[in-house]
Amino acid sequence: MALRGRIPELSVTDLIMIHCFGRTRACVKLTNDKTKAEIYFDNGNIIDARCDSCTGMEALHQAFSVTEGKYQVELNVTSQQQTIQTPWKDILKSLGTC
Model pTM greater than 0.90? Predict the structure, then answer.
């Protein structure tokens, strides 16, 4: 079962913090008219991101710019790739979100 909602109700930052603090394995999918992004977590770590044709940190930065649209969370889903090695707290600090 997937959790679904609208991004204005929960921001991308909120969604990321929920899964990092909760130490979950999940995929957060973000969609709107212009963007399709996926952010993968394993044990609370951000391990992969894909946004349109980008991957890794560039895709994650693009995903953070999504302010409208829908999200869907699929639990116990993991990525076959690890394109991000930066600790999530450092990512949030670098984006000025915490």
Answer: yes
Sign of the CA dihedral 39, 7, 71, 37?
Answer: negative
Q: How far apart are CA 44 and CA 75, in angstroms?
A: 12
**Can you tell me whether residue 16 is helix, strand or coil?**
helix
| Helix (H) or strand (E) segment spanning residue 28 | strand 26-31
CA distance linking residue 97 with residue 46, whole number of Å: 15
User: Tens of pLDDT along 62-97?
Assistant: 999 999 999 999 999 999 999 999 999 998 888 766
Rounded to whole angstroms, the Cα distance separating 67 from 2 reads 21
Q: Which residues contact 10 (CB under 8 A, 6 or more apart)?
A: 18, 71
H-assigned helices in the chain: 12-21, 56-64, 88-94
